[in-house]
Structure prediction request, 165 residues.
Amino acid sequence: MPVVFQAQQSRLANKAGKRLYYPQVKLTGNVDTDVVANEIAELSSLTTGDVKNVVDNLVIVIRRHLLASESVTLDGFGTFRLTLKTLNGGVENPEDVTANLSQPMVRFLPASTRKTDGTVATRSLLNGARYVRFDPADAEAGGTTPTPEPGGGGETGGEDEDLFG
Prediction:
């Protein structure tokens, strides 16, 4: 399945006063824990219930470590870490900093490999991604086939290409 994207206009103007357009992923659905557990069970010798139990426990264990101010790295998948998003700006004195000035958030960084020059070569979850443009006219007409990218069908480069610069 390809990654479907659409043009999205920025809410903010650039220095020249223009609101530019950028590609944005168009979500086509949601997969829950039961679906993931079923698909993993199909690929393994475990039952769907066994896999669901492991996934449920994985969430508990990740939460436990995040709340202990530890990051959690799952090889080949990525790293989870807890961050604090500042609300309503900062304060002038370090003594006035409290946790109430922020909202906790979980950040996820997909696993990656690096080229010899240190730049990111691939992100494990994105290897081999194909991109197609979402066409609202097709969706309104009841069609579900996304429009391929002009000039090559939307296929990305080889494994050494960093898809997100």
